[in-house]
Amino acid sequence: QGKQKKVRKYAVMKRMISLRDQRINEKDRAKAPVKKKDDPSAIKEREVPQHPSCLFFQYNTQLGPPYHILVDTNFINFSIKAKLDLVQSMMDCLYAKCIPCITDCVMGEIEKLGQKYRVALRIAKDPRFERLPCGHKGTYADDCLVQRVTQHKCYIVATVDKELKRRIRKIPGVPIMYISRHRYNIERMPDDYGAPRF
């Protein structure tokens, strides 16, 4: 009979002495955590996100004519393709005065697109457009629009970008304007604002 082969067990760890072991000197031992007793008279603090006072559930009281509409880069490009006048089509959609707003980031994006989109740049520089300055670094317009809409609930976002729409739908009380069938439509706009529902 041959000698039986001794196989090492898989993933065997070295046995280590616990820091609370009796053989370790008193000064080297790990101290047991001391539990503090809660003072019942102390004021309990907790972080609660501040909800805007303009929202009553999904109803946004800050939205009203004249509507301020944040315009995205692709919305201007798709409007040109659909041969739509931006301001006039917005007024036809909402039945009220509309002020299209354009941020520095969106302006930067259109300028970066180059000579091919010079018509979009000329439309963006229209005096009827309100220019909104940006105080952050970079020119990624989607983050800028989402941040602006989260802080101030007085805007409607005009975009065709699916990813941006998905992000804005998560913010309560912010309607989205989009293009379909060669006209502007509005999404999530209550009847109380005097605007049609589609």
UniProtKB/TrEMBL annotation:
Its main location: nucleus. GO terms for cellular component: small-subunit processome. Residues 67-166 form the PIN domain. InterPro entries: Fcf1/UTP23, Fcf1_PIN, PIN-like_dom_sf, PIN_dom. Keywords: Nucleus, Ribosome biogenesis, rRNA processing. SUPFAM superfamilies: PIN domain-like (SSF88723). Residues 24-43 are annotated as: Disordered. One of its GO terms (biological process) is rRNA processing. It is found in: Nucleus, Nucleolus. Belongs to the UTP23/FCF1 family. FCF1 subfamily. PANTHER family: RRNA-PROCESSING PROTEIN UTP23 HOMOLOG. Part of the small subunit (SSU) processome, first precursor of the small eukaryotic ribosomal subunit. During the assembly of the SSU processome in the nucleolus, many ribosome biogenesis factors, an RNA chaperone and ribosomal proteins associate with the nascent pre-rRNA and work in concert to generate RNA folding, modifications, rearrangements and cleavage as well as targeted degradation of pre-ribosomal RNA by the RNA exosome. Part of the small subunit (SSU) processome, composed of more than 70 proteins and the RNA chaperone small nucleolar RNA (snoRNA) U3. This is rRNA-processing protein FCF1 homolog. It comes from Ciccaba nigrolineata.
